[in-house]
Amino acid sequence: MKNESLGITETQYFHLPGELQLESGKKLSSVTLAYETYGSLNQDRSNAILVCHALSGDAHAAGWHPGDQKPGWWDTMIGPGKALDTDRYFVICSNVLGGCKGSTGPSSTNPATGKPYGIDFPVITIGDMVKAQKALTDHLGIGKLFAAVGGSMGGVQVLQWAVSYPDSLSKAIAIATTSHSSPQQIAFNEVGRIAIISDPKWNEGNYYSQSPPVHGLALARMIGHITYLSDDSMQYKFGRRLQDKNKYDFDLAFDFEVESYLHHQGQSFTKRFDANTYLYITKALDYFDLTKNGSLRDGLRDVQAKFLVIGVSSDWLYPTYQSREIVAALTANNKDANYREIESNYGHDAFLLETGQLSYLITNFLSHVSVADIMKKDIVSIQEGISIEETARVMCREGITHLPVVSKSGELAGIITSWDISKAVALKYTSPEHIMTREVITASPDESIESAAKKMQRKNISALPVVDAGRKILGIIGSDEINRLVGGYI
């Protein structure tokens, strides 16, 4: 198996048609989303994975841009043979609405004035960001994402996808995240915003034609960066070591390595990020709350995706109890949800750094596909007692070769194939009762694809009805669906 970089990648741009209706009631026109894709979309467009970035991320998740000193921010996870295997999946990553890396945000030109929006940009929400992403996936012809994955604010977007578009997402992977911003998280965001707007060069957000508020933005980043680490990681990385000296200077300049590190993080951040964008995105995070009338269970009641929720043992910005709350609410709604915890001293940043643990968890979750994931749910069936002629008409009209027969109570009674119809005509039978198979080989919704494929191969059949414990029919799975997914079990 390959495990290499994607090489040179390119950012593309999608221009949303018309206006984007925002949760605030305002509308935003001329919206652009910057995005990148990796791998190829399969024939039935069922292998797409959306990667959602964190607060300071962008669309460049993997591969290299010409002249770059380092690859995309999740290059260790995306590419041939990696967890998000581009030989198998079509991976998409877009810069969020409100961003400053090619997507429409405060630094973009306001079509009404011809100048940057600044603080005339409308306040946005995580829901607005996801709504724009949904327009992008629609544009790409993707009716249903195979998965969405993200950490931190990326995990927040994944959760919003599952709630806002339950029929458009099969699997959700939310890492080091929360279902609603806590008072502590809001507090840290507010301190960062105050650092920016207290910088005189912020100038009420109108700084694009002059010197930007780099001091305030650097300070906001320094504060934020502390929350991404852990006490253990800072002790290991810095201890109390001095920076380029052997003794204290006894002045107010910085002495310690950790001080130098934070100053470097703040200053480098100002070269790639917009201060107004920081204000707007942190505000969107503050507003994020998936509870309904105070109940997370009610807020997650309608989700359909299978969930993998991953916490980080040393994360104090998004503590593991918040991940566990998500899984508890999903489980209370009888949803398919699993919780896993990464053992790491890196703190919140572990979702970017613990490639080995994450790759293992994500690879297993994505590759464990059950019958329910790919079965056809909109199936046609007939009730016992109808004529051969009507049965034949149904099969011809729907273009199907396998037709389940159900009892009046809805239980599976048998199955009729196109071969059975030919046999009935030749023998001049008038009722399907004489030709339908009653001892039907079936699959359960939680059965593995491999198990269903082996049943078909062993019995030389090309489709299996999917039934629940009470023999009520839920769907049907055929060899075509399996072959598209795993390439040749049958």
Automatic annotation (TrEMBL):
Biological process per Gene Ontology, one example term: methionine biosynthetic process
EC number, as in UniProt: 2.3.1.31
Main localization (coarse): cytoplasm
Residues in CBS domain copies: 375-433, 436-490
Taxonomy, superkingdom: Archaea
Cellular component terms per the entry's GO annotation: cytoplasm
CDD domains: CBS_pair_arch_MET2_assoc (cd04605)
Keywords from the named record: Acyltransferase, Amino-acid biosynthesis, CBS domain, Cytoplasm, Methionine biosynthesis, Repeat, Transferase
Active-site positions on this chain: S152, D315, H348
UniProt keyword annotation of Repeat present: yes
Pfam families, per the entry: Abhydrolase_1, CBS
Span of the signal peptide: none
PROSITE patterns in alphabetical order: CBS
Pathway linked to the protein: Amino-acid biosynthesis; L-methionine biosynthesis via de novo pathway; O-acetyl-L-homoserine from L-homoserine: step 1/1
Annotated compartments: Cytoplasm
InterPro entries cross-referenced by the UniProt entry: AB_hydrolase_1, AB_hydrolase_fold, CBS_dom, CBS_dom_sf, HAT_MetX-like
UniProt: substrate binding residues: R221, D349
GO molecular function: homoserine O-acetyltransferase activity
Catalytic activity, as annotated: L-homoserine + acetyl-CoA = O-acetyl-L-homoserine + CoA
Top-level enzyme category: transferase
NCBIfam families, per the entry: homoserO_Ac_trn, PRK00175.1
Assembly and binders: Homodimer.
Family in the record: Belongs to the AB hydrolase superfamily. MetX family.
Stated role: Transfers an acetyl group from acetyl-CoA to L-homoserine, forming acetyl-L-homoserine.
Protein name: Homoserine O-acetyltransferase
UniProt source species: Methanolobus chelungpuianus
Originating gene: metXA
